Amino acid sequence: MIEITKEMDKRLMGMIMGEVANYMQSVAPTLSQRPKLAAMQSIGGYTGGAINRTTHGGDREIDTVLGRTATDSATFDVFMTWFKRDPVANAMISKPVSATWRRPPQITDGDANDTPFCKGWKQLVKQKKIWTTFPRLDRLAMLGKYAVLLIGFSDVKSDADLATAVKEKQFKRGLDDVYFLRPYGEDQIKKITNNVDPSSRRYGLPETYTLVESIVVSSDAAPTTKEIDVHWSRIIHAADSTMQSGLGGDSLSLARLR
């Protein structure tokens, strides 16, 4: 058995700290250049703040040569393909969503959690599977610039009714008036028509959504699609990375995989 004296312990710690200092000095230049090196390795070059996507003096465009879509021009379908096939892309979406919804939020009414509102919420969570629906909406919002959740109310008798505003006095059965919750990704949102009246409190916000509904009649038949116009009061709008508008639809908003 070897006895470690205080003097030996001091010398050993000094040697260790010296080696750490030498290592940090050797890697410091590399660490400071890491953003430039990453850009050069992944997309072709770094030009002092701008990413160069070409080689051979601009004669070869790297994304084209490699047969891939540049991230700044990729569509929702491309992101979905990456999500399905690339484990890294999948983790960039799935892990934050799983971490967010692993412990669902606790809803209270002031300091109480046994009021009629709280009891109704708990019943809605159970009936409509809220904590499995919201993660689906979250994933779709991260894959694209935004996603929406369509709330199916009992007042709808035809597709035309979806374009009308929800009126609270029409509902008499409480939670039974909520039929379904259905998330839609950016690829299923064909158009969003915004309010352009500067005198309105909803100026710049969506008025109607045109959704592409996929209809599967049976497992042995190809799905058909139809477009439906939906009033904003029947929609929950979700966006992950917002910039100017806060809705994720402006030119500066980015999908997470971009």
Description:
This protein is of the alpha+beta class. The chain folds into 2 domains: 6-65; 71-238, no CATH class. The chain contains 7 helices and 8 strands. The chain has helices spanning 6-32, 34-43, 62-65, 76-85, 87-101, 116-128, 130-143, and strands at residues 54-55, 60-61, 147-153, 178-184, 189-194, 206-215, 224-231, 235-238. The strands form 3 sheets. Strands 4-3-8 form a 3-stranded antiparallel beta sheet, with helices on one face. α4 (76-85) packs across α5 and α5 (87-101) crosses α7 (130-143).
Number of helices, where a helix is a run of at least 4 consecutive DSSP H or I residues: 7
The biggest beta sheet reads: 3 strands, antiparallel
Tell me the strand order in the biggest sheet. 4-3-8
CA-to-CA gap between the ends? 58 Å
Our estimate of the beta-strand percent is 15-25%
Instruction: Give average pLDDT, whole number.
Output: 78
Helix content: 25-40%
Number of domains: 2
Poorly predicted ranges (pLDDT <50, ≥5 residues)? 36-50
H/E element order = HHEEHHHHHEEEEEE
Q: How many strand elements? A: 8
Structural class: alpha+beta
Question: In a nutshell, what does this entry contain?
Answer:
With 258 residues, this protein is of the alpha+beta class.
Question: Could you outline the blueprint of secondary structure elements for this entry?
Answer:
Elements: H1 6-32, H2 34-43, E1 54-55, E2 60-61, H3 62-65, H4 76-85, H5 87-101, H6 116-128, H7 130-143, E3 147-153, E4 178-184, E5 189-194, E6 206-215, E7 224-231, E8 235-238
Antiparallel strand pairs: 1-2, 3-4, 3-8, 5-6, 6-7
Helix pairs in contact: 4-5, 5-7
